[in-house]
Amino acid sequence: MTRLPARRSVLAAALGVSWQQRLLHHHGVPAAWRRRRCSGAGSKAEDSSSPVTPMLKHLMFKIKATGPITVAEYMREALTNPVKGYYMHHDMLGEGGDFVTSPEISQIFGELIGIWYVSEWMAAGKPKTLQLVELGPGRGTLTDDILRVFNQLGSLLNKCDISIHLVEVSPKLSEIQALTLTGEKIQSELDVTSPVYMKGISKAGIPIFWYRELQDVPQGTSFYLAHEFFDALPIHKFQRTEQGWREVLIDIDPKAPDKLRFVLAPSATPATEYFIQGKEARDHVEVCPDAGILIQKLACRIQEDGGAALIADYGHNGNKTDTFRSFRSHELHDVLIAPGTADLTADVDFSYLQTMTQGRVATLGPLKQQEFLKNMGIDVRLQVLLQNSSDTAMHKHLLQGYDMLMNPKKMGDRFNFFALLPHQRLAHSDQKANLQHSKSLSTSVAGFGELVWK
Ligand code: SAH
């Protein structure tokens, strides 16, 4: 039997061993993980056929009426147009869909995130209310796993008034989230002016509210979570030319009237002036203003009301160039083919997010997923589950899930964790704010340093 380090065995005890049975039935280990390969804009289609989807028709009418559109407008329409947007009316997650995410691979992932929130809630002085706010909850799996941790740690949290707030634009996914979290189908609210469009009660009796936008979520001490959310927000693309910076736009291909192509704006636009920094060294830049606005809102809320935000996604620190890509059935797909039927995504620029906090909050990370999960005690959790099962299929499942999450060639190095915290949270640690290279630094914040369970 492996002997566990003292602090970590406390974590193992806190989590208990009883969930191992559930693991077997829970998430299958997928054949491929999300966005497993990267290629540039206009990458070659694996399938050369180019169906004229309703979304393509809609975009073509728009371009014919008003001229070429920005990549941001293309992405926003293709993903979240209320009628034909990719996210709106089908379930794209999992083996049968287009991509799979960490919470869908292993429930250990959500368990450790749940521990992170309890740890931060304790560090915040155990406030009497705890709003858990998830942006883009997918199938609701991550929140469900977190709620099981809260339930397991009921003796710690029993005096705390917990509520769940989900920010989701997709009617289809919110229906699935309701089923996952409450076990029931929930009717939408009849009052269309209400910011809450659905309400339910979790299996353990915790109230859950659904909103379309963060600004609709009530103020108050809140703990925010965004897992693979920021990468779905619309980006603008810019190219350096001999004449200066030009925005990349999308137009109809004159040689193939049912196809789209990338073009460069003929002259500089206000966007080029506004979004490109004077000292920019790259030749191609992607900027996501929606992400900047969202981060500002989160930073203001945390500054005013306390709490924390944990953002996990693939991304870079302001050094990558062309990361816009599309996925369908776990394969890379041409970004301009059959819009509305495939996922569109771009790497998150964490340095931009950090700049957009405008110093209102402290930031930690980005830290690689494998390091974050290791600090959170994933090895202990795995050992406990392995030791408590004699089932070989279960062992295989646990080990495959662990490998997928932790292997640097799979999700371990590609995904990053980034946190926003009130300045006073770090006031007593040796670094006060904006830690860019937390790998080499120690901090009292779980995940970014080793978990200390008090
Ligand atoms: N967090 C989940 C799902 C990631 S997929 C997981 O890791 O498994 C992206 C999620 O964000 C989906 O739920 C999608 O419907 C939602 N989403 C995308 N754009 C959104 C927007 N602009 N506002 C709110 N939700 C959005």
Describe it:
- This protein has 454 residues and is of the alpha/beta class.
- Helix content is 34%, strand content 20%.
- It contains 16 helices and 17 strands.
- Strands 2, 3, 4, 5, 6, 11, 15, 16 and 17 form a nine-stranded mixed sheet that branches.
- A hairpin with a 2-residue loop joins strand 7 (236-241) and strand 8.
- It is globular.
- The model is unreliable at 1-48 and 430-442 (pLDDT under 50).
- The chain binds S-adenosyl-L-homocysteine.
- S-adenosyl-L-homocysteine binds at residues 79-80, 87, 93, 101, 103-104, 136-138, 142, 167-170, 173, 227-229, 232.
- It comes from Chelydra serpentina (Snapping turtle).
- Belongs to the NDUFAF7 family.
- It is an enzyme of class 2 (transferase).
- It catalyses: L-arginyl-[protein] + 2 S-adenosyl-L-methionine = N(omega),N(omega)'-dimethyl-L-arginyl-[protein] + 2 S-adenosyl-L-homocysteine + 2 H(+).
- InterPro entries: NDUFAF7, NDUFAF7_sf, SAM-dependent_MTases_sf.
